[in-house]
Amino acid sequence: MLFSAYFRLLRAGYVLAREGALSIISTRDLPPALAPLRAGIWLGRLIERPSVRKTGHVERLTRALNLLGPTYVKFGQTLATRPDVVGAAIANDLAGLQDRMDPFDAALVPGILAAALEDKAAELTELSAPIAAASIAQVHRATLKPANGPNKIVAVKILRPGVQARFMADIESFYAAARLANRFAASTKRLRPVEVVETLDRSAQLELDLRLEAASISEMAENIKDDTGFVIPSVSWDHVAQNVLTTSWVDGIPIREHAALDAAGVDRKALAANLLQSFLRHAIRDGFFHADMHPGNLFADPRSGDVIAVDFGIMGRINRQERRFLADILYGFITRDYRMVAERHFDIGYVPKGQSVDDFALAIRSIGEPLHGRTAADISMARVLGQLFAITDLFDMQTRPELVLLQKSMVLVEGVARALDPDLDIWSVSEPVVGEWLRKQAGPMGQIESLGEHLKTAAEAAGRVPAILAQAELALADYHARKQQPADLVLRRALLGLIGLAAVTLLAVLWRVLTL
Q1: The pTM is what?
Q2: For 335-374, how does the pLDDT look when each residue is reduced to its tens digit (9 = 90+)?
Q3: Is 396 within 8 Å of 190 (Cβ atoms)?
Q4: What's the Cα-to-Cα distance from 379 to each of 53, 299, 375, 385, 435, rounded to whole Å?
Q5: Domain coordinates in residue numbering, the chain
Q6: CB of 357 closer than 8 Å to CB of 343
Q7: Could you read off the pLDDT of 411-431 as tens digits, one per residue?
Q8: Which residues, 6 or more positions from 95, have their beta carbon under 8 angstroms from its beta carbon?
Q9: What residues are labeled active site?
């Protein structure tokens, strides 16, 4: 199994190098710590197609990614939203990955529905040809004719046959690459590549069960029920299975079709601001966000200007501590409080304690200051990312795998928003959402919520004390039986000591909670 993973990895590297994928990486921007990568890129480019070396155009890269599997397609979708990183021509080539892949055989659809939904499959009629086909699934328009209730137009999402096996093979190759990086590239260990792949693996497992996607839609619908400007479909639970998802049909203009948006009178500047603020609201306020917001999954309602999102297969979740970290970091950049940005990185464990807070704040300032007063069109994210990587290397920063989806999603959303409005001021648009949440957290309700979470932690700790004491008593009894010595006094003293230690620990936890 391991050999096959390495073989697939070598094949993927060959295909991508042959089709010119390595040409999108500028070796001049790589820090010295990545000198081996620079050498590898140079060697890989030796096997590029002559036309790629001659024109600089990444020919057939979209086809190469499709052939390599859904995981590589997901990677290409991310790059498609970043023309500032890979160039406009390459981003345009990769845009076809978002929802215009070749569909699977339509003749298989009736059988798939019948096997998955049984009798309920008959209620889905007038199925259209695939209206969107992506790496994981394809979508059909249909008419739902339930036994009780009116007919309605729905969207039926169906997983590609065999996609799970392919996805797992891709992930296995990624694990192989991560282990190689750990072993042979010491500079990448701090990035924790294996744990990053584990995060992607869990995400993939969730994406391949459409029942979980239906649950995600339901949870997000509850979170945003009082919001405006962001719309999602509703689920028809009677027509959901592991490989089939049926939702209400939503009409809108694809968000990447700028000419159509302009013709319909949609305010692209307002749309971009709404998209960015909605994402931040979901991530910071709710801790639950759409983690695959590429242009193929986003539409605009021409009547209201609302953002319409579909495809909830990849969702991100962050806890309260991580939400506060994100909010503080953004607010620190907005207000140019680089000292706070640095301190929060230390607080969450991003930067080792042995590093200098002052030096790190200075490094953050060197990135943040040039961004202020400039529009999105004037900012090279490729250069910013290069600076960030150099700083993480300098300060031995550790990757937080639980934040990987958040970081990737922020890249996607920011890329889509800046495409809609090149003059977007990211900081001023973010401030209302971030500032409001931080002010709420600093107020009485936020403090009560924080205290409640700490009390819950204390209660859980207290609940574990009896089990700990019982285990200690059993261990002492076993020790007594084996030794067969009259050590009752010693045992009693040891047991009382353990009880005392547990009590002190519990009191310390409660004191910590009550003095926050």
Answers
A1: 0.69
A2: 888 898 888 888 877 788 888 999 989 988 888 887 776 6
A3: yes
A4: 28, 26, 7, 11, 24
A5: 2-97, 252-442, 445-514
A6: yes
A7: 778 888 888 998 888 778 888
A8: 80, 256, 295
A9: 292
